[in-house]
Amino acid sequence: MRHSTFRLAVNVALDGLLGASAMVGARLLLAPDADPVSPAWTLPWAAVSLLLGGLPFRLSVQYWRFAGAGDLLGVTAASVTAAALFSLALHAAGLPLPAPTFPAVHALTLMVLLAAPRVFYRVMQEGSAAAEGSQPVLLVGAGDPADLFLRALNADRHAPYRAVGLLSLGQAQTGRRIQGCPIIGTVADADALLARLRAQDRLPACLVVTEPDMSGAALADLMRVAEREGLRVARAPRLTALDPEGRVRDRLELKPVAIEDLLNRAQVPLDREGMARLVQGRRVLVTGAGGSIGSELARQVAALGPEVLLLLDNGEYALWQIDLELGEGHPAVPRRAILADIRDEPRMRAIFEETRPELVFHAAALKHVPMVEGNPAEGLLTNAGGTRIVADAARAAGALAMVLISTDKAVNPTSVMGASKRLAEMYCQGLDMMARRAGGGMRCITVRFGNVLGSTGSVVPLFQRQLARGGPLTVTHPNMQRYFMTVREAVGLVLQASVVGTGETAAETLGDGAIFVLDMGEPVKIVDLARQVIRLAGLRPDIDVDVRFTGLRPGEKLFEELFHGREPPLPTGTPGLLVATPRTADPALVGRAIDDIAACCRGGQSRLALAQLGHMVPEFAHNPDGTAAAVRA
User: N- or C-end of the chain: fewer Cβ atoms within 10 A?
Assistant: First the structure.
């Protein structure tokens, strides 16, 4: 407080001195031979006029180091007001003006004398802002975000970086400057520009992406160019981390590029109003609520305002975590955490009978392919048997709809996990067909999609753990590829599919038992993903960190598919959503088969259970040791 008062006093004194000097200067300009300080009271009155004229514009509390356009407008207004007050005082005292133009010249002189030291002080501060040893960086992007980032750098006396140039996204800006920093070329010319800078021994330490929307192939290409020069690529803080004057709330820190940014995926517009109409005021139950998909479903459903949110999982810690998170993030949403196993039929029936959920999102499953290969009975009991138990309990409790979260591994499956999910799809398809043809009852909506980044058992967390240990990163096969999307995007589209699937005209437009398939974009090679993870850490693949191939694991395929040959894709009219032409079966027949398979599993007859699974899913080409997929490759 004492320091602030002292600085304010210094500002007042300086402004008063400049006000008096401006009056003297203006009179000398107009009447060089006259006495500029006669009568003597005009000198202090010139200072007082400026201080009074500056009060409405808070002139004396301006922070010179952060002087900007708004501050200079305040200087202009204060100068005009002060000149008018001084001239009025001369008139009131019966003294003539030195010249008819004196008020205008006085105001202009005040503007120059007040603005010049402010601008000079800011320029001097910005010139000395770069700390000793600060790293030179090249900014990617030459728009408003780059301007804001440069302001933040200039305002930070201890900034660890100094911008040496910018790369624009288009040709029109080359040769111009932003905040005094030159635009040296375009992103398309980055390779040649960096080579030239290296030859001149002016290579920056890092490329900083200031454009928040730069992602996908363009960002991946930039990273490959940077890698050839041994440069790291980072992101500038988001605009929300800076205030409108460009000041940094905390220490200015660059952010790592996220692996999600490298997915070449356009944002899909979602029907948020439709989702709200579906969820608001309804009782919603999410199975597998502690898992990656289930927990994100719980978050997005909670944001839509359900009457009550029921979280069901058999993992105590995972369930506690999501329950705690929702309690902090959505305290107004009533919720209940239910510890239960979806394979426990009496328990599930009792839960559904008691809670009467209107919407059920069934995300609980065993999804790790090699793990289910090693424990096939558990996978079948959970994925097929558990789905039947949940669907039957939901239908008996009068649910409006049940949404089954399925997987691309259910298409032409080579793993027990994939085939068990296909059997679950068949049962739900049959129930949906039966309900629609009966003219009422619970709708069963199946949503099929590929891998989600960062999910439990996903390859990306594995790569990050391996990288933390110094590598190598292990990939099963050089041709292995998968579909990827972010968990938030996948769940948003699941909710979108739920809106479409429960719509009035869904049966007529989509057909009975249709399976929604998320538009996953282009598949990604796992080896490319591994190399991107290495690049994101600022390291060089195969130089700093090795990538090793370990061979296909049990149940794995080289290529996943989203549609079976007998279920060609059909449009839904909703961006991001396709529908598979239905291949339906009698739910009673499928239900009996699931019961028989479950009985075999409980009796320790896994081989017989797999034989029955193959009979129900004839396209199941089991690959228990990974060799079959390698031969097909």
Answer: N
Reduce the secondary structure of 515-553 to three states and give it as a string. EEEECCCCCEEHHHHHHHHHHHCCCCECCCECEEECCCC
Q: How far apart are CA 389 and CA 342, in angstroms?
A: 7
Mean pLDDT of 89-93: 78
Q: For 125-149, b where at least 16 C-beta lie within 10 A, e where not — what string?
A: bbeebbeeebbbbbbbbbeebbbbb
The neighbour count for residue 315, using CB atoms within 10 Å, is: 14
Lowest mean per-residue pLDDT among 355-369, 437-451, 567-581: 567-581
H-state helical runs in 33-101: 42-54, 69-92
Please report which residue ranges of 330-368 form alpha helices under DSSP H. 345-355
Residue of 255, 367, 409, 557 marked active site:
409
For residue 382, the surrounding DSSP H or E stretch is none
Has residue 156 got a pLDDT over 50? Answer: yes
Six-digit token string for 563 = 């549609």
Q: Which helix (H) or strand (E) holds 151?
A: helix 144-155
Residue 232 near residue 205 (C-beta atoms within 8 A): yes
334 preceded by a cis bond (ω within 30 of 0): no
With cut-offs at 50, 70 and 90, classify the pLDDT of residue 198. confident
How many Cα atoms within 13 Å fall on the side-chain side of residue 96?
5
Domains annotated for the chain, with CATH where assigned, are 2-124 (no CATH), 129-257 (3.40.50.720), 272-632 (3.40.50.720)
> Which range has the worst mean pLDDT, 296-310, 419-433, 516-530?
516-530
- Closest by CA to 381, choosing from 146, 112, 605, is 605
Which segments of 100-243 are extended strands (E)? Answer: 130-140, 159-168, 177-178, 181-186, 206-209, 232-235
Active site residue 409: yes
